[in-house]
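Hi support team,

I submitted a single chain yesterday and got back a structure, but I'm not sure I'm reading the token output correctly. Could someone confirm the output below corresponds to the sequence I sent? I've pasted both exactly as they appear in my results page.

Thanks,
R.
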Amino acid sequence: MTNSDKVISLIILGLLAPVVLMLLFWWGSIPFVKDDALIMYLALGGLAAGVILDFTLLRGFVFKLFKLPLNVLTAVEIFYSIMVYGLFMGFPVFNSLVGIFGSYINARGGVVQKKSREEILKSSRYINRISTGILLFLCICTAVFALRESSICLQIKGMLNLPFNVTMGMVWMLIIIGGGLLLWFQYYFSVFVSKRVLSSLAS
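Hi R., thanks for writing in. Yes, this is the structure output for that exact sequence:
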């Protein structure tokens, strides 16, 4: 692995324990703790505990991103898809980047593990289908949430500062066409990135 591979691995895998423990301490303490300040301290304590784990028990694991089995890599992608979806308040556009980066990690991992071109292509097709399925599910969730909002037309008009009224027909067009373009964008660039990484096998 190159130094850049190690940095990427440290960031992606190194964030898992701190984020999971922070959320666990945060949301897990809410039913039992009424003081908001104490809840925040507990969340920060969970974050700190995760960092400590990264430097101790998980020290070897955080550098193994490009050597993970495909099922574990899939689980990591699902985790980050959920985190990004929540971070951007159910706006799935940035989730496409998770899928594209997942394709890069899969292909690069195949190169690091000295797999054959056929093996990498097979795993790339698998991870691309998984990524597309995840994004499709998130797009459907966003559509359901949006359609349940009685004021969705006014919200879109205000958000985009449109000079005309938005109708439900326009909302449906935005959902179908926008979602389709987003799925195409992720799939196309996932394939493109995989092929670019694979080109290093021929050089």
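A quick pointer for reading it: Residues 1-65 form one domain. Let us know if anything else looks off.

Best,
Support desk
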